[in-house]
TrEMBL record:
Domain AB hydrolase-1: 26-192
Molecular function as annotated in GO: hydrolase activity
Name of the featured protein: Alpha/beta hydrolase
Keywords from the named record: Hydrolase
Signal peptide range: none
Gene3D superfamilies in the record: alpha/beta hydrolase
Organism encoding this protein: Kitasatospora arboriphila
Domain of life: Bacteria
InterPro entries cross-referenced by the UniProt entry: AB_hydrolase_1 (IPR000073), AB_hydrolase_fold (IPR029058), AB_hydrolase_sf (IPR050266)
Length: 255
């Protein structure tokens, strides 16, 4: 396991690194997840193996530190991840971001373009999410339907009971403050939105989505801006877990 301090207080982001040739491929997980748990099988797939790969846990999640005095906005997540990538010597990386991790990857590419040579977004969040969501659900809007005080005082148990054992296996590793604040800021999105940032980025961009869901919202405008849209069969939102072969083919073909 590798790590780097990313805040003035010395809080550390940690990652599992798979050795290989560069440029690095950096995997970034979604809300309540962890990159080693969600991406290891896919990163070792024959179509993707052999590249230097960093399976990074965002601050507040998985193996990384969980500071209580961090804001956990998408911009702060992106800046902390940028500090970790610089420490790792992973400039010009290919970022593969799932869900919230895709939103963070977009913001990072906009704020720190020298660190990102290519974006592969996996069913990523692009827009603000209407509130309220179903209380107790695992979605960002469900978590954000509680105030921070309610969530920390015990409403997190409703989330635990609602998400099921698979998601909770990694969600329970997150700091509760980090989990709630990240959900709130994901729901609020950025200004401009992640969609607008993505459309304006110069890097090659690919957006993977489950074929069963149909094209993402605003597909024509995304495609017109140069975003390559790829439908992956036989999967739901967790593309890399549901169909590792299809995911690996799509990532390997990204250009």
């Amino acid at each position: 396991m590798r790590s780097a301090p990313v805040t003035p207080a010395g809080d550390r982001i940690r990652w599992v690194e798979l050795p290989g040739a560069g440029p690095a491929r950096v995997f970034v997980h979604g809300l309540g997840a962890s990159s080693p748990a969600y991406f290891t099988e896919a990163a070792l797939h024959p179509l993707l193996a052999g590249r230097r790969s960093l399976l990074v846990d965002l601050l507040g999640f998985g193996l990384s530190d969980r500071p209580e005095d961090f804001g956990y906005t998408l911009e702060e997540h992106a800046d902390a991840l940028a500090a970790a990538l610089r420490s790792a010597g992973a400039d010009g990386a290919e970022l593969v971001g799932h869900s919230m991790g895709g939103a963070v990857a977009i913001v990072l590419a906009a704020r720190h373009p020298e660190l990102v040579s290519r974006l592969v977004l996996v069913d990523a969040n692009l827009d603000p999410v209407p509130l309220p969501g179903p209380p107790g659900g695992g979605s960002s809007s469900g978590l954000a339907s509680f105030t921070e005080e309610e969530f920390l005082a015990g409403a997190w148990r409703q989330v635990r009971d609602g998400v099921g054992p698979h998601w909770w296996s990694t969600m329970r590793l997150a700091g509760r403050t980090a989990l709630h604040r990240s959900a709130v800021h994901l729901v609020r999105a950025t200004v401009p939105t992640m969609r607008e940032l993505l459309i304006g980025l110069p890097q090659p961009r690919t957006f993977l989505h489950p074929a069963a869901d149909g094209p993402p919202d605003g597909a024509e405008r995304l495609a017109a801006s140069g975003v390559r849209l790829v439908a992956v069969p036989d999967c739901g939102h967790n593309v890399m877990l549901d169909n590792p072969d299809g995911f690996a083919r799509a990532v390997a073909a990204a250009r």
